[in-house]
Amino acid sequence: MTDQRHADSEAYLQKKQFFNQLLTIYGRKPVLEALQEPSTKVFRLHLAESNRGGGIIDDIIKLATDKGAEVLYHDRKSLARLSKNSKQDQGVVADLICEGYKDYRDFLKQQEIQQQKCDEPYDIIALDRITNPQNLGMIIRSVCAGQTTALLLPNKGCAKLDALVIKASTGTIFRAPILRCDSLPKALQDFRAAGCDVYGLSSHANTQIGEMDKNKKPAVFVLGNETEGVSKEVEQQCNAMVSIPMQRNVESLNVAVTASLLAFRKVFRGN
Which of 96, 104, 125, 266 could form a disulfide bond with 179, CB atoms 3.0-4.6 angstroms apart? Predict the structure, then answer.
């Protein structure tokens, strides 16, 4: 009986982990463009029973089935529960597989288990109200390519993970290590409680980011909104605000460029 319960528990956790990797997008053109991306992996395509065949619907179905997706049909009310936006889903919803998706709490639990085995402390980039899809996509691409451990991304407040972000990320969104959270301030509080230092990026900070490398502790670097910077609520969770040194009176960098510097800074440090 005990062995069976253990097996059932393992099966449940594996199933939960898989469904946590799913990114749900909706709308005919966004879904079509996402499926046209060669690297897209799709689990299920959901369609309204009221959709008329032909045209873009047939194109979507063909692309999804070619990728091995299960195609399901729903009444409008059931589909609206999946999209959570009945006014804009246009009768089409897709569940895309993002292998690097994880709840940040699962990451912290994993780090707690592996703490004694880890020689190099983890290094995370967090985003606070990054609303430009192009910037978000390029940040995801840098995180996927660089040596940063993961990207910490709130479920609300940042640009939606839609076809525009997928395109800007050049499909790396499906491989990038992305930690999701409902509240960024709460997540940062939990990271600090786990022994992590949190640093907010600000062009006005007196402390330079290179000084933080002296600390051999896990770190989260928070990038703020493109025009307003890090929010007050997030700044309250930071151990310190730090800056990237600038030459020739340049005040600041684009947030996606800043993320790239953070993602690759270990490479140029020789680590």
Answer: 104
CA atoms of 143 and 130, how far apart (whole Å): 15
Which CATH number describes the domain made up of 22-97? 3.30.1330.30
pLDDT at 17: 76
Is residue 5 predicted with pLDDT exceeding 90? no
Q: How far apart are the C-alpha atoms of 99 and 18, rounded to whole Å? A: 8
Q: pLDDT band for position 156 (50/70/90)?
A: very high
| pLDDT, averaged across the chain | 91
Please state the pTM of the whole predicted model: 0.86
Q: What is the DSSP letter of 116?
A: G
Partners of 125 in beta bridges: 151, 221
Greatest CA separation for the chain: 71
Three-state SS at 162: coil
CB 166 within 8 A of CB 37: yes
Say yes or no to pLDDT of 256 above 80: yes
* pLDDT at residue 140 is higher than 90: yes
Distance CA 173, CA 88 (A): 23
Task: Give the domain ranges of the chain.
Answer: 22-97, 101-269
What phi, psi does 33 have (nearest 5°)?
-65, -35
Residue 78, pLDDT above cutoff 70: yes
Return the CATH number of 101-269, one of 3.40.710.10, 3.30.420.340, 3.40.190.10, 3.40.1280.10. Answer: 3.40.1280.10
CA distance 131 to 178: 17
